[in-house]
Amino acid sequence: MIIGVPRERKILENRVALTPNGAKTLVQSGHRVLIETQAGAGSHFPDSDYAACGCEIIHSLAEVWGQANLIVKVKEPHTEEFKYFRKDLAIFDYLHLASMPEIAFKLRDSGMSSIAYELIRDEKGSLPLLEPMSEIAGKLSVLNGAYFLLTQNGGRGVLLGRAAGLSPARVTVIGAGVAGKAAVETALGLGASVCVLDVNEAKLKALSASFDDYVDVKLSTPMAIQQELPNTDLLVAAVLVPGAAAPRILTREMIRTMKPASVFVDISIDQGGCAETIRATDLQNPTYIEEGVIHYGVCNMPSQTARTSTLALTKVTLPYILEIANSGVDHVIRSNSIVRAAVNTHQGQLTCKAVAESIGAEYTEL
Ligand SMILES: NC(=O)c1ccc[n+]([C@@H]2O[C@H](COP(=O)([O-])OP(=O)(O)OC[C@H]3O[C@@H](n4cnc5c(N)ncnc54)[C@H](O)[C@@H]3O)[C@@H](O)[C@H]2O)c1
Prior knowledge:
Elements: E1 2-5, H1 20-28, E2 32-36, H2 47-52, E3 56-58, H3 61-67, E4 70-72, E5 90-93, H4 101-110, E6 113-116, H5 131-148, E7 170-174, H6 178-189, E8 193-198, H7 201-210, E9 216-219, H8 222-228, E10 234-237, H9 252-256, E11 263-266, E12 287-290, E13 293-296, H10 306-327, H11 329-335, H12 337-340, E14 343-346, E15 349-350, H13 353-359
Parallel strand pairs: 1-2, 1-4, 2-3, 4-5, 5-6, 7-8, 7-10, 8-9, 10-11, 11-13
Antiparallel strand pairs: 6-14, 12-13, 14-15
The structure holds nicotinamide-adenine-dinucleotide (NAD).
């Protein structure tokens, strides 16, 4: 198979879909790997590393898309790439189509097969291709939040950790999953006082136990959120209903009760965000103020630690890329139910129910 790896086009997206070592595994299995020049530069993998692993360095985006049978990327296709969509091509990457109907319809109408990293769900029910990025984004949410709480960045001028006998800042995390847990770990590590809310009681119990009860846990209800927000310095949202648009659990009125110049980081922005006041931003201009609160809505947070993220991503995606390359897209979709469940579009149909419902389009079962 010919596997194409384009350079990412999203603003300040520095990850790349394959490390040189990952690409080498594919080359050694008899596949051709086309790397667009400079695709790995942002993660400090120069073209020469890929060439040494047997990859072909390609100087035009059109050629990468035009020659490949399978495109592997990090983020959703960029507008510049829409014109290369075609029927006999497959793409495997983070798609998050519930929040991007335009891309969903373009992929569907092209007849392409698109398979979403974030919907690969293993036998244990976890999302192994999303987890490493969620863990990294969770940790970064608190580091970014702490940065925007600084006085010179427009924040309240509050230190997250305890100092000089004063009470520590309060961090509220909504969502006790992978990203939420990583946010809690980082916030506790910095010495903050932490509260976590989730609708899943079992997850809250497990999370509380894993931090020796150093964290307050609450069942997430509108009332519990309302009680927590006026005392919160940094709010982190990390909720997920796989495939679907993020549930809108934070109203404008709730955000209005937060302290002036406090910070809200919505990690779930890649699924559309969970607050009435949130909108997508980018790493160049990551924040804006709404209701006096600094809002942060970056959809590619892990790009800030591009090398770590690229290494972590290739580790989990490579077995799937290898299987697709070895067996062919159609065969894997037929024979592997885990991959089949992650197919968003195939032969002109939208084949993910949660995505179809979120964007009000017709769903066709694969
Ligand atoms: N912005 C970024 O750069 C970035 C990077 C990685 C992941 N993400 C996103 O972060 C989000 C969280 O991912 P994750 O891997 O931690 O998911 P997860 O499935 O591990 O955890 C999600 C949690 O949300 C909880 N939840 C669902 N509905 C809820 C509700 N109404 N109220 C309260 N809690 C609710 C679930 O019970 C679960 O515990 C996803 O949208 C993911 O795509 C964003």
